[in-house]
Amino acid sequence: MTGFDLDDSVLQAPTEPPFLNGLNPEQRTAVLTTEGPVLVLSGAGTGKTRVLTTRIAYIIAAGLARPWEILATTFTNKAAKAMKDRLIQMIGADGESVGLGTFHGIGARILRKHAAEAGLTPNFVILNSDDQERLLKQIMQEVGIDTKQYAPKIMLDIIQRWKDRGLMPDAVSAGQLSDFCEGRGLGLYQLYQKRLGELGAVDFGDLLLLLLELFKNNAPVLAHYQNQFRYILVDEYQDTNVAQYMLLRLLARGHNNLCCVGDDDQSIYSWRGAEVDNILNFGKAFPDALIVRLEQNYRSTGHILGAAAGLIARNAGRLGKTLKVADTRDGAGEKVAVRGFWSGDREAQKIVELIENRQRLGTPLSHMAILVRASFQTRAFEETLIRAGMPYKIFGGFKFYEREEIRDAVAYLRLIENNADDLAFLRIVNKPRRGIGDQAVSALVAAGKEKSRCLLDAIAAADLRPAPRKTLEAFAEKIAGWAELARKTDLVSLAKRVLEESGYIAMWRDDKSADAPGRLENITEFYNVLSDFETLQDFLEYVALITDADDAPDGDALMIMTLHASKGLEFEHVYLPGWEEGLFPHQKALDESGAEGLEEERRLAYVGITRAQKSGFISYAGNRRVYGQWQNALPSRFIDELPAGHVQADSEIRGGVRAEPSFFTWGKSGRPDFSAPRHAGERSARVGKRVHHELFGDGIVIRADGDRLEVHFDAHGSKKILARFLTEL
Q: Residue 452 and which of 186, 294, 521, 593 are 20 to 30 A apart at CA?
């Protein structure tokens, strides 16, 4: 073997590269075991990014491979950039040449290089989710499917799941068909792929599916990349789908130098195609694989780790590991707080008060986060934060590239890059208004279909009146002129010229609405973004591949986000509201996926707890307003699964809001005891009792079925209420 000798005595010698210093024994093993398949089970906060980058640096420094012979995949552009920056710090300019990026970004680069072999044009467009949905909606309407009854978005999700499993239309079997759209889904998939080809476009799933088809059907191309990529590294392996797994198997065939880093306990994306079995079955797929467990946590306190470990241990589908505090100077820290509140609004009020207290004691707001299971939960917090005058940011909210003016500007550039991009044409042909009405557009679309031409080329053949024909011909001339300009000038100058000459900037300058100035400011920022790119193709690819996780929170504002969006982030203090049955675990997950859905929900709870560095606060509400309706709720089963030694529990449902005890039974830990038996005499004794409810006031129990009571309230009539939400008068 060339490079560094792996003998322990040499590894400790002063000649070893400095970037190996400070690695714990398990991290060193993961870095130095370079040959053959390796699975690094990296628990939350155990330094997986350091392991990945150090392993790449070591392979290069030891002379085992040149930088361009290494392929490293991540799931976000942000993570890829962070890894590349670390590599450059470790090994200098060599870090720039490593093949490092997202699966989809790497797929796009290879497909552009081999576009002809893949049946694509080199300047193919990558459609965003909005354009994908619009295209599929058009197809569904053309074949007579009611898009109000059958949402195109749901059908698109079904198609994307087929793509995630590596299935072209001719490979979808009878057992994989869906009843949605009256069982016509496969036909829609076929039409959708045909229309993408006509547009010279691909969607996000095609970047992997078509690459997989290219490798399967073109042995020389596959052999080229198998020989080029001598070492393959994968981040967040638990989030890979079947198509990604198949691509990795093909590329690693022969040398099997595949190192996958992931955490089966953080696999929370099955709803978008992730397959947890990829990581659980790694040892079966690669029988000679080395499995390294990273269990020293550098993020959280002992009580946080203990609570998370006790919870996730309930899952059967896991390889197993136990997180330990790597640095014991801070001791076990605060116990994880569990609190019950009378209502969701009071829950929001108390959590905001706690956050205010920590802010007064010196903790920046940006070091704290509220993580919710469902987006509707943010409403109560936003209202409370506004009243408190506290700055906050909804992470994963309305994105820059989703704004109307930015989508329009990008559509102009897309049409300049690819004249066949009919979706971009339709978006901007009458923006600003050029007098092109629906009748003219319909005639143009009809001519395009009849002559098998893109809409720009169909102008000459369309049955148009003189005025719209003249306008459309002038528009086509401008597009051609801008396309010529694109080959001669930089992107910023091109975009400014296009948006000025098209009249788009003037449209917003003349607009008297309150948001028009903000739209112009966004376009100015758009120019700033363009300055970072050398070619139009590079920019359009970046826009198409950017994900929610690439938006980094900044500024001193409280962060509010869903649990799914929080993965990969960390905060000093984390607040986890809404731990109630039906909300968390979510009823939809239980209904659709049963035991597997419950385990994924539990993994999501584990992710939430392990985002916390110093403290975690879990809460539930007895009454919550869901889509305008008050609903009673039971505390989540996950609360009872938290180890009592790591939790400090209390609830105002049994005291605080109402000093009188309710019919609810409480265990020794201060948590509700659902198993306490109720005898028939106790049930019948409730009938006729006068009771009080926080929202509905006083009433009388008229019927009892276990803990489910029917109460006739003096002011609100009869309601069915769980006994624990009532107090006896």
A: 186
d(CA 305, CA 397): 30
Question: Which one of 131, 164, 236, 405 is the catalytic residue?
Answer: 236
Long-range contacts of 685-688 (CB under 8 A, 24+ apart): 686/723
Q: What is the pLDDT of residues 575-603, one digit of tens each?
A: 999 999 989 999 888 888 888 999 999 99
* Torsion angle in degrees (nearest 10) through CA of 544, 228, 242, 179: 50
647-651 and 336-343 strand pairing:
parallel
- Indicate the pairing of strand 629-632 with strand 571-576: unpaired
* Helix, strand, coil percent content, the chain, rounded in steps of 5: 50, 15, 35
266 is annotated as an active-site residue: yes
Encoded tokens for 72? 């490293």
pLDDT of residue 663: 32
Predicted pLDDT of residue 363:
95
Q: How many whole angstroms separate alpha carbon 571 and alpha carbon 358?
A: 13
Both structure tokens of 57: 């640096």
CATH 3.90.230.10 fits 8-112+209-294, yes or no: no
CATH of range 400-548; options 3.40.50.280, 3.20.20.140, 1.10.486.10, 2.40.128.20: 1.10.486.10
Which pLDDT score is estimated for 718?
77
236 part of the active site? yes
Fold (CATH) for 126-199: Arc Repressor Mutant, subunit A (1.10.10)
Give the model's pLDDT for residue 401. 76
* Segments of 96-137 assigned E as strands: 99-102, 125-126
Active-site residue (options: 49, 147, 359, 665)? 49
Q: 346, 414, 427, 611: which one is catalytic?
A: 611
d(CA 570, CA 531): 31
Question: Which of the residues in the chain have pLDDT under 70?
Answer: 1-14, 327-331, 396-399, 547-555, 626-629, 654-685
The pairs formed by 550-554 with CB atoms below 8 angstroms and a separation of 24 or more are 550/76, 550/77, 550/78, 551/395, 551/396, 551/399, 552/78, 553/366, 553/393, 553/395, 554/366
Rounding to the nearest 10 degrees, give the CA dihedral for residues 340, 343, 346, 348.
80
User: Are the CB atoms for 637 and 301 separated by under 8 Å?
Assistant: no
452: left (phi over 0), alpha (psi -120 to 50) or beta: left
Cα gap 229→32, rounded to integer Å: 18
CATH topology of domain 296-396+556-563+570-590+615-660: Rossmann fold (3.40.50)
pLDDT at 515: 76
> How far apart are the C-alpha atoms of 24 and 326, rounded to whole Å?
10
> CB neighbours (10 Å) of residue 281?
12
* Cα 78 to Cα 398: distance, rounded to the nearest angstrom: 18
Instruction: Report d(CA 6, CA 58) in Å as an integer.
Output: 12
Give the helix ranges, DSSP H, for 610-700: 637-641, 680-686
- CATH class of residue range 677-729: mainly beta
- Please identify which of the residues 48, 163, 350, 603 carries the catalytic annotation: 48
Active-site position among 164, 235, 239, 422:
235
Q: Is 198 a catalytic residue?
A: no
Written as one letter, the residue type at 564 is H
Q: Given phi > 0 = left and psi -120 to 50 = alpha, else beta, which region is 47?
A: left
- DSSP, collapsed to helix, strand or coil, labels residue 679 as coil
48 is catalytic: yes
Catalytic residue among 266, 377, 562, 610: 266
